[in-house]
Hints:
globular; mainly beta; four-stranded antiparallel beta sheet; 1 helix; 43% strand; single chain; binds calcium ion
Amino acid sequence: MNNERFRYAAARSAAIVCVAVTLTACGPGGGIGGGEGPATLSPDTASVPVGGRATFTLSPAQAADWTVNDLVGGTATVGRITPIGVYTAPFVIPSPTTVTIGASVATNTATVNVVSRFAAAGTQSIGSCTPSCAPNAVIAPYLNNDGYSDLVTANAGNGTISVVMRGSASTFLAPSPSAVGVSATAEPQALVAGDFNGDSSRDLAIADADTAAPAVWTRLGQGDGTFPTESSVALGSTSRPLSIASGRFDSDVNLDVVVANFVTNTLSILRGDGTGTFPNVTPITSDIASPLGVAVADFNQDGFDDIAVANNGDDTVVVFLSVGNGAFQTAQSYTVAGGPSAVVAADLNGDGFPDLAVTAATDRHLVPLINKGTPASSGSTFNQPSTPYSTGVEPIALAAADVNRDGFQDLAVVNKGDNTITVFLGYGDGTAVASETYPVGNAPQSVAVGDFNGDDWPDLAVANSGDDTVTILRNRGS
Ligand SMILES: [Ca+2]
Ligand SMILES: [Ca+2]
Ligand SMILES: [Ca+2]
Ligand SMILES: [Ca+2]
């Protein structure tokens, strides 16, 4: 794959050179410019996060051969630079961490310091926790549309959720915890945000693994971070729903919900009526084995959302294609790796068809499954799993986002067993590299993508179940 990318990049550069040659006279030494030279290169220093970009210019402006560490065009290891001076940092911090940018007509060079993508931006409280909150899930929706993502955690330890509003580009407001229902054994394990009653304010659906009365709770939002209206749909006894997702599984416009029930080995499909309640609940009972994760996307691009489930019990991911009326086709099963713990849908190769990425906790793997990209409604939707990537200890959750904004999806994996998160930068062809690993809090359990300072660069929030906090990692941008 590396070689293929090299060839593509080389071919693209050659094409650009040809265009340049037709427009300007060729300079001496094979350069592409009509070079008057000498020129001044600026800026003379820059700090660029892994996979990020910086633009260098020449004064007076002219064509030149741009170099990184004296290599024309640079390399994957030190970063690449285009014929017009746009430098892209490597996906892994180089050694040494600084590289030198040059241009054939310049009398000076520039120094680039390649830095980590995320800065440790702090540890956020989720409120008073006695004896413990055990936040097992975190989401980062825009609750009041002020341009800053907010936080909501599902606190399995004390039966609450915590809403933490971002009040400005730099600070969160005081956490606002509230009990889920009235049961003493309430155990919110997962949650999802969506507008379930169509009033344009985001609502919450919460998977409550209450041993006495498992349920899905709906909290209707007022657009200000408060959720005064609560209702519930009972699940079968001992269901133990540990994951939840939302989508549209039938032909009406109302948002629907799916929960994966760990003990009963079922899915519950909750079809919304547009008022925030779910009068129509149907189960999927086959091919589910101790499910720990569920993801929703329209895998075959027929307009109806489909479901993927991480089956911890039999090392598979199963895919259910919607038939458009709330029912689903027979499962497609893919054997991934030991101990599937979470699944996310994202277009990893940029063909418009959602792919899957699965964490396998026992094998310490991140496993991609690439969508075949054929909208057929029969046969297997995905290729067999691609070569897995190594993770930290006990990868338990993951999220997708384009963290370096190169147009290609990246993945953040939570390693519960060593209290870290690993960021994989995607090459856009379905392959990726473990770019960086960051320390977080104790026993991290969940990661969410948000923009907490309103700069349009994706930040990360990690729920630490062992110390009742959320770690915020701020994207450095550029
Ligand atoms: Ca709403
Ligand atoms: Ca579909
Ligand atoms: Ca794809
Ligand atoms: Ca990216």
